[in-house]
Amino acid sequence: MTTRMRAVSQRSYGGPEVLELVETALPTPGPGEALVRVSAAGVNPADWRIRSGMVRKFGDPPFTLGLDLSGVVEAVGEQVTRFRPGDEVYGCAFPPHGTYAEYVVAPVEALAAAPASIDHVHAAALPVAALAAWQPLVRVAAVGTGQRVLIHAAAGGIGHLAVQIAKACGAYVIGTARESRHAFLRDLGADELIDYTTTDFAAVTHDIDVVLDPISGDYGPRSLDTLTPGGILIDVRGTGPDRTAVREQARARGLRFVEFGFTPSGADLESITDLVERGSLRVVVDQVLPLEDAAKAHELSQTNHVQGKIVLTPW
Question: Which domain holds residue 241?
């Protein structure tokens, strides 16, 4: 096996231009870890927020970005019995040793067997966005048959998966998206769609049981107006906006507000795999770019107009 690999690194916080392709040493898996040969790496909005310094939970540069991966196990560390070399897996890893690389070391509890019915590019687009949709809808809100679910940014990476997961749970799903995305979302199962560029969703939507919000900002307080008594607003934006106002308003009105961050979980990914294999969940890939075009991928991601996910391939 080679001892060197290519990876996308950054030596400082800044714009997409700080991303550079470098050669570095191949990592070694420790106890409870697997070394994965990366076939594809998903790009998430969290990546550019980390790159820019908006999110600093992983320490200061230099580091390698990337949270999503799909690939083949090359080696395993001590105490690993769940996977062995040659297994195809997908899951999560984190900076400073992220997935924008030819190889990555990941905790085995953050990995699952890759869905057999899709390729590595589509599998790599799933983990973070699917977990950020599945965990709040299933584990937090316990969405069930007949409930009304409002999903903001419904055509985005999290949103288009959330539409399908909510439908699989038996919900009536309403999504906010530009009119040009409506046919796409109807094909995924959305029952009702609102063009946020022409219509105030808060004025036309009511009796909502669950709101999933990947946007935050003023969407939070406005979404409270749509909720039925006892309803829940789940903000999955992550680090960034101040939620003090929406939290206080929700409390005053007897509504639930949850600021949610996904948890890497191979067990939850197995549930997501089941949805994929049953044909109840499909991930849409907007663009596939080579590893050396990571800066371009970030420029596209920052427009907030990507339909589905962007994926990088290192080979």
Answer: 129-259
